[in-house]
Amino acid sequence: MAFGGRFPMRFNRMPRSHLHTRAWALVRGVGFAVGLATLPAAWAEPSLPRPPGVAPGDPDRGRELVADRQRGLCLLCHSAPVGDARQQGNLAPPLAGVGGRLDEAELRLRIHDSRQVNPESLMPAYGVVDAAPRVAQAWRGKTIFSAQQIEDVVAWLVTLK
Ligand code: HEC
Question: Is the pLDDT of residue 104 over 80?
Fold first, then answer.
């Protein structure tokens, strides 16, 4: 134990520059404050405001769109508190409770174009015209949902707390 006994003692006797310590504390303090101020921007979830000219959504129409197996197809991948749970997907996070995790603008962006949150996303971008060459003729030049339909879906999702 020769080493363990002597080493800390030598350290304690080392002369300290108080000025240096204070200046350093100040620099660290300022750095911490700047860091804190920029945190909200770094933490904020990506989101999208309601586009001008689009009316607030109707949650009942939104629920119908989510459950609709021709248009929304949400239940191919997600489960949601609507219809028969046995015929719902488990590829994606359950939509139950999603209104508690994400706010309206965050939900809107995910429906409009989830690739803006996750570039690898498997979820269709419901508000973007898909420029991919293999899009079926009927869908070329069109979005899957209109801006109003996105609004309706979002209006229902925010109720899922
Ligand atoms: C082809 C599969 C697929 C379809 C169809 C689909 N989604 Fe998704 N969705 C996903 C996946 C996968 C995620 C997980 C995040 C990611 O990878 O983008 C996701 C994420 C989400 C999220 C964020 C969930 C969270 O907890 O962060 C919401 C909200 C959402 N989807 C709603 C919908 C709605 C509403 C529809 C129908 C209009 C729909 N999705 C259709 C695959 C899909």
Answer: yes
How many structural domains does the chain have? 1
- Residue of the nearest CA to atom 22 in ligand 1? 110
CATH number at residue 118: 1.10.760.10
- Taking alpha carbons only, the member of 99, 76, 72, 103 closest to residue 88 is 76
Q: Among 99, 100, 98, 128, which Cα is nearest to 113's?
A: 128
Tokens 């979002």 belong to 154
- Amino acid letter, residue 8: P
Summarised one tens digit per residue, pLDDT across range 41-56 is 556 789 999 999 999 9
Q: How far is it, in rounded angstroms, from Cα 58 to Cα 143? A: 20
CA distance 122 to 100: 23
Distance 74 CA to ligand 1 centre (A): 7
Answer whether 124 contacts ligand 1 (Cβ < 6 A): yes
Give the residue from 96, 78, 97 showing the smallest Cα distance to 88: 78
